[in-house]
Amino acid sequence: MTSSPREHSGLWVAVASFVLWGLMPLYWHLLKSVPSLQIVAHRVVWSALLVLAWLLWKQGRGWLRAALERPRAAWMLALSGTLIGFNWSLYIWAVNAGHVVESSLGYFINPLLNVVLGVAFLHERLRPVQWVSVALAAVGVVWLTVQFGQPPWIAICLALSFALYGLLRKLLAIDAVAGLGVENLYLLLPALVVVMWGETHGQGGFLPLGGAGWGAGADALLILGGALTALPLIGFAYAVRRVPLSAVGLLQYIAPTLQFLCGVFVFHEAFDTDRLVGFAFIWVGLLIFACEGWWRLRRPAVPVTA
């Protein structure tokens, strides 16, 4: 079966989005001289400006009212905005503190954690093969905990915050870009406070309001970081309407794979045999999970007889 032009374009947009997410450690590493909290604050500010401009252009001034008319939208988007802000903050800190490999582990765990949350909150039932996948991932996390004396907290917090974020957005069922716009509005004022506090207390350096400045290159990277935050999300929203979810589910592993490769081969982070064993359990669980899901979606439907 050949794909339609609509599916073909959606597929390439999805690939581009996941590749961009996967290579983001390289980008944030260029801003290593900027305090992580300032990077996050600028990321929110510039992402908000881009997303809000997009929404005003595409949907007009009534987009916010339409988004918040949904029941529970105001408080759920406030909570999801807090979760994604925490996720961004921890991820940027982890990248610039030399924990890219562990960060990638969080996004490998995330799909399986989504399944667990589906059981806990949406009353979904797991098939036996899915339980095997979750169990293998749990064994991998326990192995890493025993070998290194503590759980991989960065990976667990990244996976949990993003999985809870996804659960809230699924329960609300709002347009991806409009939801991101409301979340950014909630985060915008705190982000502006952080930016201005940094500029007036010796931790800023933008344009150069806070002293010597970080340099024009860092300023440009901070502004562009807002676009690199919003564009993959917009691209993802575009793609999921055109590409089968089974394909999107497999493509999502592009991002943590590229993050992992960046950590090992670009930043030369430690990845010894003990880490390999723990990761291997999780990778095998993911492989079983992905293959079983793909097989069930691709097999022909059984005709119903009277």
UniProtKB/TrEMBL annotation:
Full protein name: EamA family transporter RarD
UniProt-annotated location(s): Cell membrane
Membrane-topology annotation of the record: Multi-pass membrane protein
Keyword hit for Lipid metabolism: no
Similarity comment: Belongs to the EamA transporter family.
Pfam families tied to this protein: EamA (PF00892)
EamA domain span: 9-145
Matching SUPFAM superfamilies: Multidrug resistance efflux transporter EmrE (SSF103481)
Keyword annotations from UniProtKB, A to Z: Cell membrane, Membrane, Transmembrane, Transmembrane helix, Transport
TM ranges: 12-30, 36-57, 73-93, 105-122, 129-146, 152-168, 180-198, 218-238, 250-270, 276-295
Chief localization: membrane
Designated gene of the protein: rarD
Residues spanning the signal sequence: none
GO CC annotation: plasma membrane
Keyword NAD recorded: no
